[in-house]
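Reproducibility note. Readers wishing to regenerate the assembly model reported in the main text can use the exact inputs given here. Chain order matters: entities are listed in the order in which they were concatenated for prediction.
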Amino acid sequence: MSAGDNIPTLEVRDLQTRFHTRGGVLPVVNGVSFTLGRGKVLGLVGESGSGKSVTGFSIMGLVDAPGQIEGGQVLFKGQDLLRLSEPERRALRGSRIAMIFQDPMATLNPVLRVDAQMLEAVHAHVKMSNTEARRLAASTLELMGIASPEERLLAYPHQLSGGMRQRVAIAIALLHGPDLIIADEPTTALDVTIQAQILSEMQKLVRERGTSLIWISHDLSVVAGLADEIAVMYAGRIVEHGTVDQVLDDPQHPYTQGLIASLPDVNQVNLSSAKKRGLRLRQIPGMAPNLLNMPGGCAFAPRCPRASSVCNEMPEMSTQAGHQVRCFHPGTAVEVTA
Amino acid sequence: MSGKKKTFDEHSIWWRVAADFLQSRVAVGGLIVLGLVVLAALVAPWITPQNPYDLMQLDVLDARLHPGTPSSAGGYTYWLGTDGQGRDLYSAIIYGLRISLLVGVGSALFAAVIGTLVGLLAAYAGGKVDAALMRLVDLLLSFPTILMALMILAYVGKGVGNVVLTLVLLEWAYYARTARGQALVETRREYVEAARGQGIPRWRILTGHILPNCLPPLLVIGALQIARAITLEATLSFLGLGVPITEPSLGLLISNGYQYLLSNEYWISFFPGVALLATIIAINLVGDQLRDVLNPRLQK
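Running the prediction on these inputs yields the following structure tokens for the assembly.
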């Protein structure tokens, strides 16, 4: 066991996932690498289309045609998942590695009762009697803060509220006590108070059980409160990776700085409403690049205020201010006057 | 769906479907007629004065009697008249309904099972298997049904079992196409992705998760196909290729009376025709309402 303790739960090395579309080959995940220790929480942040969800799906082995994993390694406790056969991967999915999806309405089967869906998930991996499986299901629901779980087991998804549905979906992911959970924006569809409750419950569970968690989100504020580390993705690559404090307090990549600057400022919100209304929200100029027609070098260069001729080359990861940054012109943000 | 329920109700969606179904009076009327028809067919021996399939009970001297004539053996009245062989038409219609319903429900059931399996297989396998199966379906659906039925029956011969077989061969394609289309739609839903993420085997996802979501449209097709099968059986019997002459179904009764229509002996064709019409309309009304209730796009 002592040897096993040193092996990280997940190590992704140079992951390449491409989508072969009629228009051409899209490098959706383009050389993503990161390491996630036992019980650690990684926030994977980026805008829509940055490849953060596909990274999650690639780790799960759920990438469907026209997508294909074409390179790299996904080491789960030292074992390369990409070399496993489909039955071997299936055995890990849901038991050791679980996934939670964004829309709890869509992820629960509308015509099956909660108990049917939970028992199915139990029986997919463990042989046990229905009574035992039921007990496990009920106790896992209780773990997610669901009152009278026996009653909820008899409900159909449409009879549950949005927050309740997501708790059920998370409980299904927790059934087998996985070592790694990949959560793909699971609180985005929920209102803020429910979101906060579920976040704190997740955080507690992960801490108690030593489960590693990848929290995919576009919402920096959610990730800030939950994660140990943040990896910022842009156009299929990680552009900045460090601890929460490093990335949020001293971002080095201009894209990360833009993301943080585009958050509405709390101080602005506190201004009187007349004044507040006049203030513009900051945005990053330009648009995310078309993956079919990527700039030769740094993908962010066309939108970057610091871009220069060197940016026509792809920058490598380098250590800046104690964490990893992929930029030729890293540096602390200069306050932009609006 | 309609009206918010304050209490935590434990009714399944099928309960809601039933409640929605009862909203339409016409459909309820159809359901009642259909219920009576099925009931009559089930208890036929106890509600009919004569077994029209037992040649010993038939009296040829009683052939083609007017409605309301008492039987020569005495004991009962031919309220709906008799046919060319001296069958009491009322008894013959009730027994004929038995055959019609048996053929209709039996063929629809078998066709539904086979068609659904083929459709799910096509959706699951994809690629060449899918293409091959669907071209076969296209081929079957593009042929004139009656012509195909006549060809098959000419080959396998008459009889209730063979009629059912013929109808199954002709009708599974409808279910296959619907099941495949629905399964393809459902496969792209997120709950399938989630089920895969739970490590549930693919065939279990197909049968346990996707199939239940495909059932509503298949149910509607099933209801309408029962009506179609009954009509088709009647047509085949009318053409002389359906059930044996000694065990007339509704179609054969109509066919037998057809030659007497011009000599004012209307009842031999008329009453079986009315029974057939009522049954078909009732099934169609029920089927239409089912479609409205189960189609999410038409829901309030």
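We highlight two features of this model. Residues 1-10 of chain B have pLDDT under 50 and may be disordered. The first helix of chain B runs from residue 13 to 21.
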